[in-house]
Amino acid sequence: MRLLSVKSLEVKEFSANVIPPYAILSHRWLGDDEEVILQDIELPVAKTKLGYEKLVKSCKQAEKDGVEYVWIDSCCIDKTSSAELSESINSMFRWYKEAVVCYAFLSDVPSDSTLEDDSPFAKSKWFTRGWTLQELIAPEHLRFYSQEWKPLGSKSHLSGVISRITGIDELTLRGRRELHLSSIAARMSWAAKRETTREEDRSYSLLGLFGVHLPLLYGEGGLILPGFFPR
């Protein structure tokens, strides 16, 4: 597992039995050309990309929280390796679950947003993406941040609001109900209106919610869940 040092902004690799405490970022991708990827994290080009700021802000917040490392998908996964990408996607739920804290960066929500049903917070695209479903549910501690990186509240304190937005029950959001106790239909309903850029990711983004491990088969298209997921 690769982690980003909050002090040096260097990516370091750790074996499974010596992974240090880490924070983790949940965010919407800006596009491959604007995210800081593993291959350019330590190059001058990294600072020219729009995604560099959220990388730095994530590290600064983690340092405030007393955490020395951050995991960010854009720069901690080598996406040129299909084997690594497959293993990473199958490990994603566990990585979010084991993080000390998750920072959910809402790039389309201003700091003065209210929590009303028609507010920028409630309408944030973060709540509509397929990958952010597991990133919302898996972490025990999750805090939301505005586009200016100001705190908006925690998952536990905002569970009622989030439940109305997502349809996920508060007990699950608060970690007071084990995920497997929610029916297959309920878990599928949480994902029903969420979108992914690639069609196959509608399935891959749900692997952790069902405790399923699958090899990645991009190019197949469509929803591949029925033949693999438990009934």
Structural write-up:
The protein is of the alpha/beta class. It has one domain (2-195). The chain is 30% helix and 12% strand. It has a 7-stranded mixed sheet with strand order 2-1-4-3-5-6-7, with helices on both faces. Strand 1 and strand 2 form a beta hairpin. The protein is globular and about 45 Å long.
- Strand content bin: 5-15%
Average pLDDT works out at 92
Shape: globular
Count of separate DSSP helical elements? 9
Q: Enumerate the strands of the largest sheet in spatial order, edge to edge or round the barrel.
A: 2-1-4-3-5-6-7
Q: What gyration radius follows from the Cα positions, in whole Å?
A: 17 Å
The end-to-end distance, rounded to whole angstroms, is 32 Å
Helix content range: 25-40%
DSSP strand count = 7
Structural class: alpha/beta
Largest sheet: 7 strands, mixed
Parts with pLDDT < 50 across at least 5 consecutive residues? 227-231
String of helices and strands? EEEHEHHEHEEHHHHH
Number of domains: 1
Q: What keyword list fits this structure?
A:
231 residues, alpha/beta, 7-stranded mixed β-sheet, 7 strands, globular
